[in-house]
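Researcher: Hi, I'm a grad student and pretty new to this. My advisor asked me to get structures for two proteins we've been looking at. I'm not sure of the right format, so I'll just paste the first sequence and hope you can take it from there.
Model: That works fine. Here's the first sequence with its structure tokens right after it:
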Amino acid sequence: MLGGAPAIPISLFWMAWTTYRHISVWSSIIASAVFGFGITTVFISAHLYVIDAYEKGAASAFAMLVMPRYLASGGITVAGGPIYSSIGVHYTLSILGAISAVMAFVPYVFYFYGHHIRRVSPHAVVHD
């Protein structure tokens, strides 16, 4: 997860500013592959973390993990088209890259302070 988290904003900024007609389409395709690596790494690691942290209540914790993802997916499906057409591909991907750059630190927080965070939850399993 730690290697995939920075790959997401890097690939979004890469895609945002290489989608010009005078730049080869392969640049955006490679950036999309890096984005896919980052998203897959973060999602799989987050799912495994939740399953390991909440052994007995893993199903409920997993539902709380994926529900915001699906709600955001449904919302961005409706809002994505108008956003892209109103401010353009470059700025839309730059905004998403900035949001993901801020969120890229979250896996590091869980990696270094996860055991402290799990101690606060009465349902989490803490392995000392």
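Researcher: Oh nice, that was easy. Here's the second one.
Model: And its structure:
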Amino acid sequence: MSNQKVFGLLVTDQKVPLIEKPEDKDQCYLCGFTFENEDCMHIFSDKELSEKRKAHQKCIFNHLQLLPKETQVAIVSVETNEVISYTTVSEKA
């Protein structure tokens, strides 16, 4: 894997969050709660990497565990905003 920083995750089977939230940029896309300290990662909700959403790290990991094992996940570079590699949910660390 490249030594580029990981910017976010792209989940191909992104599900709509169960909680309806106002369009507040400082809320987690998955759970709706605000962020404390720097517990904020990014998740892309489309394959074109244009819909970037903020989410708690724990929410992302919990969300991935609920997805089908064949769901494809992309690791995206901070510097280039390009996909570094793809993996599946079953291969996650």
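Researcher: Is there anything I should tell my advisor about the second?
Model: You could mention this: Residues 1-7, 12-22 have pLDDT under 50 and may be disordered.
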